[in-house]
Amino acid sequence: MLTGQRLRKGRKLAQVHKGASEIFHRDGYSGASVDDIARAARVSKATLYSYFPEKAAMFQEVILQTLEETAIQTPIRIAADCKAHEGVPELTRQIAAWQLSRPAISLQRLIIAESTRFPDIARRYHAIIDTILHDAIRTHLDRWVERAELTIADTAVAARQLVKLAGASLHDQPIAAAMPPDALDHHVDGIARAAAQLFLASNLTANTGPELRHASG
């Protein structure tokens, strides 16, 4: 269960959150020790326990705060006047880049590892992904359908398909996490380009000009 009362007061609470987040992401829930968290937060164990009487409550609070920060804004940034043949490749690039970013990789691994112990947090995580990815993508797909640039029967389904196509990179996370920035950018571009080509090949309207079809192929 999610904690019923969220702790928001206390001069050192921000330090506790930062230290606990660092240790939980590094060691997982089971591997995280209160001693390590106290050292990372630069507080005494007594201070730590004054905020959180048990590790489970600390984990839930810290991860919920991380999820709230994640939910503040979508990683999707596409101009409203962008054409589908240009916008879809940019969508897939932004999806792949976000999924392969170190914070996203770390959070996803932690959520998956602890989903059985903390199912409510896992559900919250997936609800946030729906909002910041699927809902944001669907807004653009709906606009391109209205402009007769794409032919899509169900944009909600199509949005999920697009995320999965760009998410083909997820199995590469351990490799991507060790890549230098330039190599990671090249990796993301390749994934995004392949995903966009496949999606556009299936959904571009029949009246799309040959020059636009060539650009997307």
From TrEMBL:
Give every HTH tetR-type domain span: 10-70
Keyword annotations:
DNA-binding, Transcription, Transcription regulation
User: Which residues carry the record's DNA-binding region feature?
Assistant: 33-52
Cross-referenced Gene3D superfamilies:
Tetracycline Repressor, domain 2
Recorded hits in Pfam families, A to Z, give:
TetR_C_7, TetR_N
- Determine if Nucleus is one of this entry's keywords: no
- Transcription regulation keyword on record: yes
PANTHER family noted in UniProt: HTH-TYPE TRANSCRIPTIONAL REGULATOR BETI, HTH-TYPE TRANSCRIPTIONAL REGULATOR RUTR
> Can you say what this protein is called?
TetR/AcrR family transcriptional regulator
